[in-house]
Design brief:
Order of helices and strands: HEEEEEEEEEEE
Helix content: 10-25%
CATH class: Mainly Beta
CATH superfamily: PCu(A)C copper chaperone
Number of strands: 11
Largest sheet: 11 strands, mixed
CATH architecture: Sandwich
Structural class: mainly beta
Number of helices: 1
Number of domains: 1
Shape: globular
CATH topology: Immunoglobulin-like
Radius of gyration: 18 Å
Length: about 160
C-alpha cells in the first residue's frame, strides 16, 4: 500500500513539473521578461481587439518593443490610450514602447496595448492567440496570448 501511494505521489509531482511551463504564461528573451500576455474575447462582428502584458528589462541596456506580428489579424500596431479631459484618445506609437534598464512597462487596458486590427476570426475565451514580439535589440520571440472573458479586467491566474 505504501508503494502505491509513493508511486501516485511521484506521478502527480512529475505531472506538475511537466505542466508548470504551460501554466506560468511568462516568457524570457535575453534580458527581457514578458509576463502574462492576454487578450479579451470579442463579439462575432468585432473588427479589432487589444492585447496586454507586462514587459521587464532586467538588463543594463535600454531596449524597445518595436513591432508585434500575428496571423490572427490583418494588421497589428502598438498603441497608447490616454484621456484628454473627458475625451479618450488612442494613437499608434510609431517608435514602439521604450524599455529602460531595470524598468517594467505594463501594457494594459486604458494605457499602452497591442491593437489587433482586421481580426480574421473572433477571439474566444480559453483560446490562445499566437503572436511574435519584435524588440529592437533582443530580437524576436513567439508568445501565446491567453484569451480571457469579454470585459475581463486582467488575466485569470491558473488554478493550482
Amino acid at each position: 500500500m505504501k508503494n502505491r501511494h509513493s508511486l501516485a505521489a511521484a506521478l502527480l509531482l512529475a505531472g506538475a513539473i511537466v505542466a508548470s511551463p504551460i501554466l506560468a504564461r511568462d516568457y524570457t528573451l535575453g534580458t527581457i521578461q514578458i509576463g502574462q500576455p492576454w487578450s479579451r474575447a470579442t463579439p462575432a462582428s468585432a473588427p479589432s481587439a487589444g492585447g496586454y502584458m507586462t514587459l521587464t528589462n532586467k538588463g543594463a541596456e535600454p531596449d524597445r518593443l518595436i513591432a508585434v506580428e500575428s496571423q490572427a489579424a490583418g494588421h497589428v500596431e502598438i498603441h497608447e490610450m490616454s484621456m484628454d479631459g473627458s475625451i479618450m484618445r488612442m494613437r499608434q506609437l510609431e517608435n514602439g514602447v521604450a524599455l529602460a534598464p531595470g524598468a517594467t512597462v505594463e501594457l494594459k487596458p486604458g494605457g499602452y496595448h497591442v491593437m489587433f486590427m482586421q481580426l480574421k476570426a473572433p477571439l474566444k475565451k480559453g483560446e490562445r492567440v499566437p503572436i511574435v514580439l519584435v524588440f529592437e535589440k533582443a530580437g524576436r520571440i513567439p508568445v501565446d496570448m491567453q484569451v480571457e472573458a469579454l470585459g475581463a479586467a486582467g488575466p485569470v491566474a491558473p488554478a493550482h
